[in-house]
Structures are given as structure tokens and as C-alpha cells.
Amino acid sequence: SDPDLVARAAAAKAALGDRVFVLGHHYQRDEVIQFADVTGDSFKLAREAAARPDAEYIVFCGVHFMAESADILTADSQKVVLPDLAAGCSMADMAVLSQVETAWDVLTELGVARDVVPVTYMNSSADIKGFVGRHGGVVCTSSNARRALDWAYGQGSKVLFLPDQHLGRNTAVLELGLSLDDCVLYDPHKLNGGLTPEQLRDAKMILWRGHCSVHGRFTLDSVNDVRERVPGVNVLVHPECRHEVVTAADLVGSTEYIIRAIEAAPAGSAWAVGTELNLVRRLALAHPDKQIMFLDRAVCYCSTMNRIDLPHLVWALEELVAGRVVNQITVDPDTARHARAALDQMLALPG
Ligand code: 13P
Ligand code: SF4
């Protein structure tokens, strides 16, 4: 990266000292991650944000929904900054509040809403988290989806899982032992989700039709192809991947899990990793004694994560030094209060 920008970022951080805390998601660029005070998956970063009451500014190098969650979990006086406002998440955008309210109306008319506990993946807008909190549900991340679902099925007999169908299905089927027939896919663009009243009444798991455009690109062919090319390879994937990919893989887990698995792997072992490319490249560089490769032949970054680049980070930090807060992310107090209930429920999950 540009040495002048590196020096400017370092100088701005030094000038701000403890007043600023920089969080970096594992999918961020190298040029950005070098300035993170802490790196993590979305669960770890949510906890870290909540654990920094003394930092006046939280600069979130990640995507919009993560910065919103940080704003909800931090004190009113703390300001959360997202260095590029265009860093969104296509999956989070697949569940819009009005669509979810319509789905809830459908469930209410069928008389089943009272049995349904809504669960939303962290990768959703604050509006959606607020909806879930209002209806007694919980937020989950890829590191605690199983525990969140265990909790939810202790509260009601059905779950509405937003917005990632793959995390919902993979966790329900592979970890809770539900069958694929217990799950239905609710399409917000179709009348009644494209489902019959019987399907909605019988389902234990109502999956929202959302997915991650990055992890959704791995296919069964990617797995078969790498197994053919690299005999003995271990296939390690994120649970946002399609069900057939996760089923064919050797190990599945969140980004933190993936990092720990690679760290614990013996020297000389081969790993094909199905998650975002910035992370896989860094893992390969950090473990030259192991053979670490991207699961697919095609290159696949998360384009919105990549929007946070060094020029944007330098700009945001230098503006803070000058006393100006740019790109502040705020959630309105009413939404924040309900979203916080669903986030606190997640943070209180046992284990
Ligand atoms: P985790 O950070 O929870 O592993 O999720 C991955 C992701 O896609 C973040 O946007
Ligand atoms: Fe969203 Fe997928 Fe990018 Fe994560 S990797 S921010 S889920 S599009």
C-alpha cells in the first residue's frame, strides 16, 4: 500500500490515541487490517465494541450492519464511524422491514405467528433486528447459530430465520437434526412467500430467501474439483455456503472457527477454504508450512467489504483529528431499544 497513506493513517491514529478504537472484520483488505486494534468475526467484533466504553470513536472497518450493531451496543456518547457509507451487504439488503412485516401478517392470519420465534442473522439491518426484538426473538451469528436456535425452540415450536437461508438450513439440518422437509423457503417477492397454508403450518423452520453473494458462489463442483486436484485435501467452509457444499465439506464454521482450525492443522496438511478471499490469502501467507488454497478457481472478494480501503480510512481518521465526525452511523432510539433486546439475548446465550 501507498507508504504516504500508511504514514498518515499511523499519525492520525497516534494523534487520537485511546479516543479511537478501530475494529476490523476478517474480510477487510490487508492495507486496512494493519490498523485494526482488534480483528474478529461479527460476533467477536460486536462484543469488542460493547467492551470499549472509554473510546469516544469506534471506527468500524467492516460493513454497514456491523456498524449499526456497534452503535446499538455502545453508549450514546460514543460515535461509530464507517469509513465508506457504500460498504453495505447484499445479504442484509435481501430482508426489508416492510417485507418481513408482510410475512408476519401472513403467519398471523394463519394463526401460527404465536408459535413462531423470529431469529435474525447478525447480517441484517437494525430495522430487522428491531422487528425481531419486538417479537421476542434473538440475533445470531455464524459462531452461535446453534445455541440461538436451541434457545428459540425452547420458546416456540417454529422459527422464522432471517435473512440467510443457508445458515438457517445448515444449522437446522446439520446441527439440530431437523429434516430438509421440516424447512420451507419463504420468498418475499411472491404472494404468501410462494407457500401454501399447509406448508406454513407444518414447517418447523421458515427460511427467508436470502443468501450471501460471495459464499453462494461455491458449488459442489468446486468441492469435487479440488478433491480431484489435491488428494487428501481438507475442505473447510463457512456456513453461509449452500447446503450441498457444506454437506460435502469436512469442516464448517464461522471465520473465527476457520482461523482456529488452520492454526491447529499439522504442518504439511492441505486445506481448501470456502470463505472470503482476503482472509484465505492472509491465512496462506501466515502458514507457509501448510498448503492453503481458495476453494474455487475463480477469485471472489466481498466487493462491499473491499470498499473500505486505506484512502477512506485515512480520511475518516484525519477528519476525527480535525474534530469532525464523518460517516457516523446512528440507529433511531426506538429501533435501537428493540434491536438491543435481541442482541442482548444473543450475548446472554449460554456457552
Ligand atoms: P462471520 O463474521 O460471522 O463469520 O460472518 C461472515 C460474514 O459474511 C460477515 O459478513
Ligand atoms: Fe454480506 Fe456476504 Fe459480504 Fe458478508 S461476505 S458482507 S454476508 S455479502
From TrEMBL:
Its cofactor is [4Fe-4S] cluster. Its EC number is 2.5.1.72. Transmembrane segments: none annotated. It comes from the Bacteria. One of its GO terms (molecular function) is 4 iron, 4 sulfur cluster binding. Its main location: cytoplasm. GO terms for biological process: 'de novo' NAD+ biosynthetic process from L-aspartate. Iminosuccinate binds at H25, S42, Y121, M122, N123, S142, H238, P239, E240, T255. Binds 1 [4Fe-4S] cluster per subunit. [4Fe-4S] cluster binds at C89, C212, C302. GO terms for cellular component: cytosol. Signal peptide: none annotated. It is found in: Cytoplasm. It catalyses: iminosuccinate + dihydroxyacetone phosphate = quinolinate + phosphate + 2 H2O + H(+). Belongs to the quinolinate synthase family. Type 3 subfamily. Catalyzes the condensation of iminoaspartate with dihydroxyacetone phosphate to form quinolinate. This is Quinolinate synthase. It comes from Micromonospora olivasterospora.
